Amino acid sequence: MYLAAEASTSTSRTLTITLFLIFVAITLGITIWASRQTKTATDFYAGGRQFSGFQNGMAIGGDYMSAASFLGIAGLIALYGYDGFLYSIGFLVAWLVALLLVAEFLRNSGRYTMADVLAFRMRQRPVRTAASVSTVVVSIFYLIAQMVGAGALVSLLLGITADEKFLGMTASTAKVFTIILVGALMIVYVVVGGMKGTTYVQIVKAFMLMTGALVMTIMVLAHYKFNLSTLLGDAAAQSGKGAAFLEPGLRYGVETAGDATKTFYSKMDLLSLGLALVLGTAGLPHILTRFYTVPTARIARKSVLWAIGIIGVFYLFTLALGFGAAALVGGKAITAQDKAGNTAAPQLAQKLGIDYLGGDTGGAVLLAIIAAVAFATILAVVAGLTLASSSSIAHDFYANVIKRGNTSERNEVGVARISALVIGAIAIALSIFAQSLNVAFLVALAFAVAASANLPAVLYSLFWRRFNTSGALWSIYGGLLSAVILVFFSPVVSGSATAMFPHEDWHWFPLSNPGIISIPLGFFFGWLGTVLSKETDAEKYAELEVRSLTGHGAH
Amino acid sequence: MPATPEKYLEVQSSDEFSRLRHTLRRFIFPTTIAFILWYALYVLLSAYARDFMAIKLVGNINVALLFGLLQFASTFLIAWYYSKFAAQKIDPVADDIYKSIDGDRSATTTSDEGSVL
Q: Counting CB atoms within 10 angstroms of each CB, which of A12, A79, A403, B12 has the fewest?
């Protein structure tokens, strides 16, 4: 990698792989231990509801801080300066929606899945089917983005060049191998360890990620004698973009001179992205199921408070890492490694190691640590996604739609395990197929679907007396289809150089992010569907409302 | 264990529960609107008021950076304030109502299934 001599590259590789294998060994050990503690459905789906607020806060952080936020945001800041920071803020503010409107009420009302709350006072089968569809769609989009990312990262983090062989594999074989390895490990975590195992994997990962980011942040700040202004000044100077590097506009809402329409759409895209980030988080199924792992709604509240603290501090670290990488590594060296800037943080680690930890060896060591943290990060996130979707297939679709609630716990958990295997296999296959395509937009799409389909249905369910089966179906399918259709006809799928299909063009929707249209549509459809149907269930709403506010009758 | 549907209807229409709902909603809805508008203002300024955002305050620290950091500060502050508010104004009332539901029930049945979990 950066400045690396042959010897230190190979030291670094061996060390990265060793550290990663240690992480895998530890987490597999935890998983096997957790499997012995997993006896009931509550253990499998909700980790026995015995995690503390701090533990679940860490696990939420582990679920949420994906490689996209660690490597991605640090890279965005390193290349585009301020706009990378702007991006991270939406991810943090979003947690207030979860804290104020969702976490406690969901914990009190539901049992294992998002659909438990949506179907509480509705006709079970159609609503659970819809919730299951939307859960699986959101999770699969997110999974593919993460797994393709993992494949792309392996050659970057291990520094495998296109013409070189590593352990007998070419760079492209190594990619496929990584996707399969990541997929296989996530299947094992979920199938064997259930929610308990997965939660501990996320806690370990969050601890590693926070520690790694903290150490690097301190080193960067110490380099600039804890003077933020000097760091920013140096970053701006090294970026070659001057003062503009510290201002909004290099990445989002780009102004194209003489093209007012393009400028307008670019700015609308920024607003649309911001809206989807803030409203999407509280609709992500793998985040929602985390609230069931604690004993009470108050501990769910506490866990969100911890999560806000952990995630907020983490994004402040990425600010130092991103600007630090811009200043110390430089934009040219970063783009030479990866055009998207995903290697900015590892490159910074190497540079800091060389400068402060005794030359090339120190650089190789720190690089290896950060690269191993990045792999751990990906594993924890994909495990959370697989668990959320397999839980929904087993608990919502199999137990309540197909079997109409007449099945044993044992049977249901067995189906959840098989579903995890199937979902994992599908995700591996789709990711291998999609790896040559640009699928980075899938994360933003997952947030947009969560905000357009899931959030309206969850909020209406909890707070609107009149809401009914028809409203739930309209909001879920309406929001889901709006987001997916708009993205399909947007420039991220066709009609631009960076599109998924760059050589085709069927786009007519001008924005890359559908949120600004699809989120209001989701809420509108939910309202429309509700008023078109006469169904109401005053008794069940009374139970839901009393339960969600007081916890009476909660699982 | 859940109570009867009649009991939930009765609790839902009670004055104490209405007050709880009112106190809670009067906090969470306006606060949500406020922080979304505050965030929207930040994004809108980033998109349309770039000269303003570029004003340097101290050294290389400009309005844009300060605004971004204020979003962090306001998020932490709202989270802290909500937890304080909920512990003082919501939790005790919710506990009272919870107990009153079970209290009535233990008078009519001798069930000892008091587990919340």
A: A403
Give B-chain residues touching A540 at CB under 8 angstroms: 5
Q: Where are the domains of chain B?
A: 5-96
Of B12, B68, B79, the CB nearest to A305: B79
Q: Which residue of B has its CA nearest to A93?
A: B75
Q: Where are the domains of chain A?
A: 6-550
Identify all chain B residues contacting A85, using CB atoms and an 8 Å cutoff: 65, 68
- Going by the DSSP 8-state scheme, the letter that residue A504 receives in this structure is -
- At A266-300, the pLDDT tens digits run 999 999 999 999 999 999 999 999 999 999 999 99
ipTM of predicted assembly, 2 dp = 0.93
Reduced 3-state DSSP string for chain B: CCCCHHHHHHHHCCHHHHHHHHHHHHHHHHHHHHHHHHHHHHHHHHHHCHHHHCCEEECCEEHHHHHHHHHHHHHHHHHHHHHHHHHHHHHHHHHHHHHHHHHHHHHHCCCCCCCCC
Note the pTM of the prediction, 2 decimals: 0.93
CB atoms within 10 A of CB B83: 16
User: In this predicted structure, what is the pLDDT of residue B109?
Assistant: 42
Taking contacts as CB-CB distances below 8 angstroms, the residues of chain B near A555 are 117
Q: Which of A95, A247, A305 sits opposite B62 (nearest CB)?
A: A247
Backbone angles phi, psi at A494, to 5 degrees: -150, 160
Question: What is the predicted pLDDT for the residue at A19?
Answer: 87
Q: Is the pLDDT of residue A473 over 80?
A: yes
The rounded distance, in Å, linking the Cα atoms of A282 and A424 is 24
Question: Which residue of B lies nearest to A81 if distances are taken between CA atoms?
Answer: B65
Q: Which CATH architecture has domain A6-550?
A: Up-down Bundle (1.20)
Token pair of A338 as six digits: 């990866």
From residue A520, how far is each of A272, A344, B43 by CA, in Å? 11, 37, 18
